[in-house]
Specification:
Helix content is 35%, strand content 19%. With 762 residues, the protein is α/β, with parallel strands linked by helices. Among the domains are: 29 residues; 127 residues, 2-Layer Sandwich (Chitobiase, domain 2), CATH 3.30.379; 134 residues, no CATH class; 164 residues, Jelly Rolls (Sandwich), CATH 2.60.120.260.
Length: 762
């Protein structure tokens, strides 16, 4: 027993000694360095200037000192050297695509990698991983001040797993800040498929000699359909350039031969993504129709996936004669989004999925259906992601889009090409998580969440609570209704679908709770930039509350409060995305009425209407007409469009009057019986005006038979601009109804009261 006891003691001592040696070894392997900026330099060749400058600028922020950049020949002695683009002695010179490496030694730091941006990515990885730098948004760098810089010896490698990592920016809005942010977030790719509408130049190149390449369209011709300016030509994509939107005859053997002839055999990918044009332009020739699998009663144009998969498989079969590893790229887009019913997806096909589903179950089902049909490689290219990422409300969907990336990766996704981020405060976290997940999808959501929250310093916990609140709101209220929201918003416009009816998704209590959370965050000890980020969220949350109030309650007071908030905080008064909602917040309206006091009363849409081609009205005293006389006019005209073009779905004017006004230039009269019951009683003490949105061209306004004012067409844009006519001196408060008569004179072009008339006061 004693011997056993001694044996155990010796073994315990050995274990302790071994553990001590291990700890020592680990500590020696990751020794702490203190690098003073005045005792350090950056060494870089000319081709790595950008990477060197990025390291220099960030170290300057962190330390307060600017390290010099020198070349190899200028290296001073006894300085710590940050080597940019230099491979350390003994290191491998073989790199995987885009691979980035950095190596911290006691006297030198090395940043190097693959020629496709590896060195620069090594710098960014070092700044993030070692020094805690974050880029939470454009032109915003979060960092911890330290001098000297504390480093740990060791090596690290970053190798991207995704071959496409992209956010597609609106080229019109592209600026240097956006480019820099993309680079810092490590967007890019390698071995990327060729994609995008492949045949946009083909008609101009081959139309005359080879019409057989092109679709037999709905007009029975193999040519671009002459519908320039028609919505069916997708002018949003091609501005009416129908030659760019023509579709192809995918059954044509000659088309396949031309595709193979045009293919650069040195490249791995062949792009077959169809042009963007309306479904009616799919080829109607008998051979293409044989490839379809339309069900009974189904229009073939709704599902043409089989013909395109057949086309791609045949192209791939021909191309394999030159390169067995060739990949043929095809979009699953609109009428080809759903899987083929008959065809199997060949092993050489790469599918760019352009989804119209955004809920998680629908996304998973779509991806699974493609995989079951033989999918081996795809990329996720959501065409309407910007519909989610352009709002001004805290939607809480950052985890949702993270989960979509995970789903796609599970179904052979090689990359992602998203629509542009918004840059709005409410979606910065979502943009960040999206970008970082593309950088490394293996990390859990919580990792990237913590990564982002680090930019808020001591308020990280509170800001995390804030985002979790809205994420719960997304899970409970929004995501279960996502399909209906997209339908309501039309064309998959999520933000518009929300804003047309925000009441089910955002409550006053939500903003009470989140305002309280942010208030706690502001009570923390924060650096100036950290406080600025929290304050931006506070402003955004207050702004979102006012947006929801205005859109839900629809009162002039709420709309005016929202407008004033935007003015006070120097925000865009009417954001571009809000214009697409149809002024549901009323800000557009109240901004027009900013010189007046709420409420603002819109008059009736339909006014009495009478043509006066002989200019007899004034002589006959139409301006003094009573209500009975107005009724005898017998016609009504809407006041939201020209008299030439009243909306076809309106009951008024009559068919006969529409024919008369279709090309009418001259004089016409409008009249309204205005009920004072709709006017607040305190308006008796105010100045009261008629606010005309626009009249084409000139007009005279009469109230109860007396001329109240005149608007003459003098400047070129007078027919488009609003104006007011004061009417309170002419009102008779003893009568329940006031008669408003307007004589409009139009000499050319469109004519009439074509923007609504309001009653306002001050």
């Amino acid at each position: 027993m004693g011997i056993k006891s001694n044996y155990n003691k010796r073994n315990i001592m050995k274990i302790k000694m071994t553990a001590s040696i291990l700890v020592l070894a680990l500590s020696l392997g990751a020794a702490e360095l203190r690098v003073k900026p005045e005792e350090a330099v950056i060494c870089a060749p000319p081709q790595e200037k950008k990477a060197a400058e990025e390291l220099q600028s960030h170290l300057q922020l962190i330390t307060g000192r600017k390290l010099p950049i020198v070349n190899e020949k200028e290296l001073p002695e006894k300085k710590y050297v940050f080597h940019i683009g230099k491979i350390p002695p003994g290191a491998s010179t073989e790199f995987k695509p885009e691979e980035a490496r950095w190596d911290i030694t006691p006297d030198t730091a090395y940043f190097y990698g693959d020629k496709s941006g590896g060195t620069q990515n090594a710098v960014y990885d070092f700044l993030e991983s070692e020094l805690g730098v974050r880029w939470p948004e454009l032109d915003d760098i979060a960092y911890r001040k330290q001098n000297p810089v504390i480093l740990k010896t060791g090596k690290k490698t970053w190798i991207p797993t995704l071959r496409i990592r992209s956010l597609r920016w609106d080229s019109a809005n592209r600026n240097e800040a956006e480019k820099v942010w993309r680079t810092r977030m490590r967007f890019g790719g390698h071995d990327q498929p060729l994609y995008g509408h492949a045949f946009m130049t083909w008609w101009n190149r081959y139309g005359k000699k080879h019409p057989e390449y092109f679709a037999l369209n709905s007009l029975g011709t193999r040519a671009p359909a002459p519908r320039a300016g028609d919505n069916r030509d997708n002018p949003a994509a091609y501005q009416g350039k129908t030659a760019c939107a023509i579709k192809m005859c995918v059954s044509s053997p000659e088309l396949i031969k031309q595709v193979i002839a045009n293919w650069d055999k040195k490249k791995r990918y062949i792009n077959l993504c169809e042009n963007d044009s309306p479904p009616m332009e799919y080829c109607r020739c008998p051979e293409c129709r044989k490839l379809d699998t339309a069900k009974d009663g189904e229009n073939f144009e709704r599902h043409v996936t089989d013909r395109y998969i057949n086309f791609a498989n045949r192209v791939a079969a021909e191309a394999r004669q030159y390169n067995p590893d060739v990949r043929v790229v095809l979009y699953a887009y609109n009428e080809t989004e759903q899987v083929p019913r008959r065809e199997q997806i060949g092993r050489n096909l790469t599918i760019g999925i352009v989804p119209t589903v955004f809920d998680l179950p629908g996304t998973g089902a779509l991806l699974q259906s493609w995989q079951e049909k033989g999918l081996t490689e795809c990329f996720w290219r959501p065409n309407q992601h910007h519909y989610f990422n352009t709002g001004l409300l805290p939607f809480g969907f950052e985890k949702h889009f993270y989960d979509i990336i995970q789903l796609a990766c599970q179904h052979h996704a090689i990359g992602f090409d998203y629509d542009m981020p918004s840059g709005n405060v409410t979606t910065r976290f979502s943009d960040y998580v999206l970008a970082k997940t593309l950088q490394d999808p293996s990390k859990p959501f919580e990792y990237w969440e913590k990564h982002y929250l680090a930019s808020f310093g001591n308020a990280a916990d509170e800001i995390g609570e804030y985002y979790r609140y809205w994420r719960t709101n997304w899970t409970k209220r929004i995501h279960p209704n996502l399909k209906n929201i997209l339908i309501k918003g039309k064309y998959f416009n999520f933000v518009r679908g929300i804003m047309w009816d925000p009441a089910p998704y955002f409550k006053e209590a939500d903003f009470d709770r989140t305002d309280a959370i942010l208030k706690k965050a502001l009570q923390k000890q924060l650096e100036p930039e950290e406080r600025k980020r929290v304050e931006a969220l506070v402003t955004a949350n207050q702004h979102a509350r006012l947006i929801c109030r205005a859109a839900t309650r629809k009162t002039d007071e709420d709309s005016a409060a929202l407008l004033k908030f935007r003015e006070d905080h120097k925000l865009e008064l009417i954001p571009a995305v809000e214009k697409a909602w149809g002024d549901v917040t009323g800000v557009g309206r109240v901004s027009n009425f900013k010189d007046f006091t709420p409420p603002y009363l819109v008059t009736d849409l339909f006014w009495f209407f009478k043509l006066d081609p002989q200019d007899a009205g004034l002589k006959e005293g139409w301006q003094k007409s009573d209500f009975r006389a107005l009724c005898k006019w017998g016609e009504f005209m809407p006041t939201n469009n020209f008299w030439e073009t009243p909306h076809s779905h309106y009951q008024y004017p009559s068919k006969e009057m529409r024919q008369k006004t279709a090309r009418y230039d001259g004089i016409a009269w409008y009249a309204l019986a205005l009920s004072l019951a709709k006017v607040p009683k305190d308006w008796k003490e105010r100045e009261i005006y008629l606010y005309f949105g626009a009249v084409d061209e000139s007009c005279r306004v009469y109230v109860n038979g007396k001329e109240a004012g005149t608007r003459l067409y003098q400047k070129a844009d007078d027919w488009t601009t609003p104006f007011t006519i004061r009417i309170d001196p002419y009102l008779d408060w003893s009568k329940a109804t006031q008669l408003i008569v307007v004589r409009v004179e139009d000499k050319a072009g469109m004519g009439g009261i074509w923007k609504r008339v309001w009653l306002v006061s001050k």
